[in-house]
Design a protein that fits this description.
The protein is built from no helices and 17 strands. With 239 residues, the protein is mostly beta strands. Strands 4, 5, 6, 7, 8, 9, 10 and 11 form an eight-stranded antiparallel sheet that branches. It is elongated. The protein starts with a strand and ends in a 27-residue tail after the last strand.
Length: 239
Amino acid sequence: MAAETQVLLDNEKKYIAKFFSDADESDVKKVDLSTLAWAKHTMTLSGAASPNFKIGEVITVGAAETFIVAGFTAGASTLEVVGWDNTNKKATSIDTSSSNGDAIVGGVSGTNTRTLANSGNLTGLVWNVLVTKIMWATIGCQVGIEWDGSTAEKYIGEFGGNGSWSLPGMELPGIGINATGDSSEVLGDIQFSTADQAGTDSYTIIMELKKQAPGFDIPAYEENASLGYRVDYVLGNFT
């Protein structure tokens, strides 16, 4: 038996993935919002940053963990960051391997006088998405899809046979998160459960999520003017 997830698209606006399984599943997490590209996290410093970070610049924490500065206020001791694959120059899952006391070096701002204060446990923002499209094909089983919440989980739908939803095509905005409770930052994660699954029964589901600001977005480049840097839109790397 196997369960597979194939990511088809993961940018600042959308996440699209194909899910296949021929296993019996119960509340199996399929989408963790905190790991999606452009998911903003709060990084805490040991004190007020000096010099100011440039919004959009690549920062390196410790030996090799890299992030993009997505938001920063002059002299603040926190900044918003997103995960960054500096080798391939693309947003990626947040890196949680850094440690308290790690040095922080900006690609534009240089070495900061402050160090990392909240280790790899970067605080997540409230991540918000809409389910906008679902295509499904099931063989011999049904699949329940839910929003996760530490207080109460809520159904997105129960799917059997085959079919498709294209909510914008039906002039609907999408299915929003209505679960409650965010202990351990689970609110809005998506989980699957199967019913009547046996033998070679299986499902294939393709789902599209629309990412919502402020939890997901590209850096607020226009705010660089207040930080003493030129406003540009190429990851902040021009001075």
